[in-house]
Amino acid sequence: MAAPGSLSSVLDPANFPQVLKSADGRAHVELRYDVLDVNFASRFIRSPTAGANVLFLGSTRNNFDNRPVSHLAYQAYPKLALNTLLRIATEVRLKHNLERVIIVHRLGEVPIEEESIIVGISSGHRGEGWKGAEEMLERVKERAEIWKQEWFADEQNQSGQPAAIWKANKDTDQHGRSINDG
């Protein structure tokens, strides 16, 4: 067993989920190793003053850049990542006048068709909701201290296991070019 406070203790899946909430209870962020709870996220963002609820689920697909993907794996610096996620959630909630916001990110291995991230918001109207949810997701991908490893089924390392590459937490092709730039 790892000593309390050691790096292996901080990253031990048994010490998750880890959660932070805003002082007013309107923002919830979470890191976890197990399957993400979409129903919890949906219940959290509901508000009697909200006419719009936006829930985004980022799922592992079986291919990327014309290559077969076997799974993804995520690592994070939990304390720093949680603080960054809460800052993002709070800033976006205030900027877009959102009722409630939630960000839940999975760590460890994420198989094909399972979610690695949930971003949810509630707002008075859909326009601010769509904008807020999109901005929150993009900020998470740009700023959160979460790293993605993509495992490819068509390549093996020296020990015969599927090969993996570390990627920025944003969509890039095999040459590192952003695929979101057009």
UniProtKB/TrEMBL annotation:
Domain of life: Eukaryota
Name this polypeptide is given: Uncharacterized protein
Species, as recorded: Neophaeococcomyces mojaviensis
